[in-house]
Amino acid sequence: MINFVRALSVVNYKVVVIIGKNMATLEEIRKTRLEKLAALRKAGLEPYPISASADRRSLADVAENFSKYEKKEIVIAGRIMAIRGQGGLIFFTLQDGSGKFQGLLKKDESGEAPFQLFAALADIGDFIEAGGTIFVTKRGGKTLLVKSWRILSKSLRPLPEKWHGLQDTEARYRHRYLDLLLNPELKTMFARKAAFWSATREFLQQQGFLEVETPTLEITTGGAEARPFKTHHNDFDLDLYLRISVGELWQKRLMAAGFEKTFEIGRVYRNEGTSAEHLQEFTNMEFYWAYAGAKEGMKLCRELYIAIAKKVYGKTKFEARGFKFDLADEWPEIDYAEEIKKQIGLDITKASDTEIKNKLNELGIAYKGENRERLLDTLWKHCRKTIAGPAFLVGHPKIVAPLSKSNPQAPEKTEMFQPLIAGSEVGRGYSELNDPLEQRTRFDEQKKLLAAGDEEAMMPDEEFVEMLEYGMPPACGFGFGERLFAILEDKPLRETQLFPLMRSKI
């Protein structure tokens, strides 16, 4: 791999030993590593080569197929996670994306130069490539007896201490790459998250849904009620918004175009507060199903959640946020107004806005906005916290469901449904409103809310109403997001994002 004799002749190596209270500072460690970096370059050894050997074997492959490689010469690569020296021996542990494997340098077999260069210049955190022979130690350890090695990437900062890792939450999120490196369980969780969305996609495709892509930049936001992020299109000199739903109004246009089953999985953006259940950027899925309604949607939703749970976790029973629930149970329907009355004794179908405010004050619940929609939503969010689920919330008042059809048997209610699990809503669906005249009336109500300062009210979309006038079939729409995954993991939503947004340190 390299000319070790020439390298040793020009490297003025020194080993820094750090023990107990004489722990070096980060600046001192970095200074020492920079000296090692300079020594590598002085010796003609590139510390950041273009790539590893094309013959490299993954560490998991070597470990799992040990008999295939035993006593044969191979090349492996990875990050050094541990080093321990014993006289003329240096053991080290390599880690790549697949697993870990042990390497060994023996001075009397690898030669003086490779041994001393490793002792002098290799650090925990470095990426290296090593070539040698596979064997089993006297203690039964599967090991690579190193004959040659080289640096692939010199680490200038020390990794956090192995057993304690990153304890501070902000440090963990800001240095997520270290958090993932030192926490195998966290890495496994994100593999499950990928499987979660893969299972969602697979289920819908098996049900005949077509995956589509719709705009993320919109002139008016539609499909949800949330404060949007604003941006500007320089070429068109046009103010735009980042979408707050996964193309609801666009997928409905596809229903009018003759597509009968569509879905999209994508990022959405909401310029709102942060909590265990709320972030400003996250992944959602929405599907739309022509000629179907809420009842069909609820059945498919339950089947989808059970399929995800079995595929990703191999079970349907979970414990999260102090609740126990089984997704394979029957999902009862809980009426919006009846549940509020049952829990706090207030009949929202008759109560005035003042009475609702008084009840919120009595319960010590802070609320934003003075309009009835926000007051009802705040009241409901207080009540949902006691429901373990799984269940469906139904019977929503029209004011909180501007895109849903009315219930034919109870016109003051809508054909909206929300799955409830562990005290939270983990999805939302409707029998979609396709009456253009009623949709315009509902949008007019939202206009009034916007004019009154409600930044979360839905923006009217006149071109969408125009599409409805051409005709859209009856349809069921449904969506859910990362909150479901967070609950199944029993983690705050922020913890289930690879790189949560952080304030700049500057």
Describe the structure.
The structure is a single chain. The chain is an alpha+beta fold. It folds into 2 domains: 4-159, OB fold (Dihydrolipoamide Acetyltransferase, E2P), CATH 2.40.50; 181-331 and 389-496, Bira Bifunctional Protein, Domain 2 (BirA Bifunctional Protein, domain 2), CATH 3.30.930.10. 36% of the residues lie in helices and 24% in strands. The chain is built from 17 helices and 21 strands. The chain has helices spanning 4-10, 26-42, 59-64, 66-69, 107-110, 112-121, 169-174, 176-182, 184-206, 248-257, 294-313, 336-344, 353-363, 372-384, 436-451, 462-470, 482-489, and strands spanning 73-86, 89-95, 100-106, 127-136, 142-153, 210-211, 217-218, 230-233, 238-242, 261-269, 281-290, 317-320, 323-326, 333-335, 391-394, 406-407, 410-414, 416-421, 424-425, 428-431, 475-481. The strands form 5 sheets. Strands 6, 10, 11, 14, 15, 18, 19, 20 and 21 form a 9-stranded mixed β-sheet that branches. A 5-stranded mixed barrel has the order 1-2-3-5-4. A hairpin with a 2-residue loop joins strand 16 and strand 17 (410-414). Helix 1 crosses helix 6 (112-121), helix 8 crosses helix 9 and helix 15 (436-451) packs antiparallel against helix 16 (462-470). The chain is elongated and about 90 Å long. The two termini are 42 Å apart. Residues 13-21 have low confidence and may be disordered.
